[in-house]
Amino acid sequence: MHCIKKITDDLIWVGANDRRLAMFEGVYSVPDGVSYNSYLLLDDETVLFDTVDKAVRHRFMENIAETLGDKKLDYLVIQHMEPDHSAAVQDLTLKYPDMKIVCNAKIADFIRQFYNLDIDSRIIIVKENDTINTGRHTLHFVMAPMVHWPEVMVTYDSADKILFSADAFGSFGALNGAIFADEVDFARDYMDEARRYYTNIVGKYCAQVQSLLNKASALDIGMICPLHGFVWRANINDILEKYMLWSSYEPEEYGVMLAYASVYGNTENAAEILASRLRERGVKTVMFDVSVKPASEIVSASFRWSHLVFASTTYNAGIFVTMEALLHDLAAHNIQNRTVALIENGSWAATSGGLMRGILEKCKNIKFIENNLSIKSSLKLSQLAAIDAMAYEIASTVPAASVYAAADSAAPPADIDKSAMYKLSYGLFVLTAREAGKDNGCIINTASQISSSPTTISVTVSKSNYTCGMIVNTGEFNISVLSESAPFRIFEQFGFVSGRDEDKFAGAKYQSRASNGVRYIPEYTNCVISAKVRQSVDCGTHILFVAEVTQAFILSGEPSVTYQYYFEHIKPKPQPRKEKVKGFVCKICGYVYESDTLPDDYICPLCKHGAGDFEPA
Ligand code: FEO
Predict the structure, then answer these.
(1) How many A from CA of 225 to the centre of ligand 1?
(2) What pTM was computed for the model?
C-alpha cells in the first residue's frame, strides 16, 4: 500500500523508511532507522527527484504509481548516484520507458559504472546554472561536488523557492509520521542525529560544504528538501547556521568530551576522576567508552565540544584498538581547532600517549595541554595532583562565560591532607614558583606549620634566590618535601645553579603541577604543599613568607630528609686536597673561597649561604 506525504500542492514525498537497517553504509549504526527521501513534482511535465535504496524499492514504486495516477513520468533528476538513492533507476526505466534522466556528466558515468543500463537515448546532461522548465516550475541545477560524492548536484526550484539539497541538511532517523522539521522538537530530539549524519557523512568535505553554502546564500530559499530526514519549511536558519558552524570545524559548545579505552577499568577510573574535577570547576563534560559507544557518535561529539580528552591503555605496544580506530576516524574527518589532553596507561612500557599525539598532531590547529598524564597500571594517590593540574589547565582555557554557575556554589575540593604537615621537619625542601609562564625552584631548609585553622605555614628564602622574587610577584608557591632517598643531584639541580641563568626543569621527565599550576617534584619527595602568601616579613638577607595552605597531599611514606641526614648520608664528603688551599670553605656545600679574608656580606655562589657558614680551609 502506498504511503505518501504532501509537501506543497504539487510536490509529493514518495520516499520510504527503513527501521530494520542495522548499519548505514555498513559502518554507521542507525538505531532509529533512516528515511530515503524522493519527491515527485506534478507540473505540466512531471519530475521525480532521485530514487531510494533497494530495501524500500517496492513501497517507493507503489508511491510513484499512486501519485502519478494516469500521468506519465517525464523526468528523473538524479542528483546523487550513491546506491541508497539510485537503486530504483533500473525499475523506473522499465516501468516508464519515455522517462528522461536529467543529470550531469559525472552522474552519467556513475550510472554506467553501477548499472548495466543503456541510458544514451534518454539522458539529458546539465551543467552549472542550466535550467529546465516544466510548466509553472523552472529547475536550476547547481553543482555541489563532494557533498558527499564528486558527482553531486542540487536543484533549485525558483517558482516555489525550494532547494532539493541531495545529502546536505539530511539526518539519520526514520520519519515517524511527521515530514517537516517544525512538526517535531528538532533541537531536542533530532539535532544530535543531524550532527552525527553531517559529521560522519560529509564532515571530511567541509570546504565543499562551505562552497555550497555560499551558492545557497545567493538564493531565496523557502524550503529545503534533503535526501534523508525532515523537510525544512520554517526556521531554516536554524539548520543553515549549524551547517556554517560544523563546516568551519568550530566547536558548538565549550566543554570537554572524554573518550577512554580501558581494559580493566583503571584508565576509565582516571578519566572519571578528571571528569569529576572538571565538573567541580563548572566545566561541562560528556564521557564515552570507545569500546561500547559507536565511533560515529564520538566523532559527532568531537565536532560539538571544544576540548577533547583521550585516555587509552597501551595495548600490543600501541594504542588500544578501538581508540586507535577512533583517532584515525577523527583525523580522516579532518577534526581541527580543538584543545586536546591525553592520558596514557601502561603496566610496563606505556606508549599510547605519544602514539595518540602522533595521530592528532597531523590535524590542523590542535592545541595540546601541558599537563598530560601517564599511569602505571592504576592511578596512585600521588597522581591526584596531576589530575587536578589537568583539570586546572583545561578549565583555564574554557571562557568564563561557559563555566556553568554550579562552580560558584560547589564546595571547594577537599584537597588539604593535613597529615602532610607532619612531614615538615628541620629538613630540606624544593620551593617552586611560576611567573609569566616560567617555572623555577630552589632548595630551602626552613618550612614549618604555624597555625591549623586556616592551615598556615611559613617558609624563609634568601632574597638572592630568583624564586624569592617570583613568590613576591605572584604570591604562590609549592613546597616538595624531600625524602631520604633524594640523591645529591637533586640538590645540585635546584641548589647549585640560578634560575636566572638556566631552566632548572629542562629535560625533566616529569611535568607535574599542583592545582595552582605551579610545578612540584614528584620523585624523591614524600609530600607536596601548595600555599598562597598572606604576609611577608623582610628579614635582611631573607624574606619570611607566611602563607595559607591551599592544597596538600602525600606522595610516599618515606621519612623526610633532615639537615643532619643530608650531611651524613647525601652530601659527598670533602675530598682531601693534595695541596693546602688558602681560603674559606662553605660548611653547607663545600665551596672554597680562595682568599686571605672573607667579606662579611659574602654569599656562597653555590648554596647561597652567608659568610657565617664558612670556615677557614
Ligand atoms: Fe545518502 Fe551520500 O548518500
Answers:
(1) 14
(2) 0.68
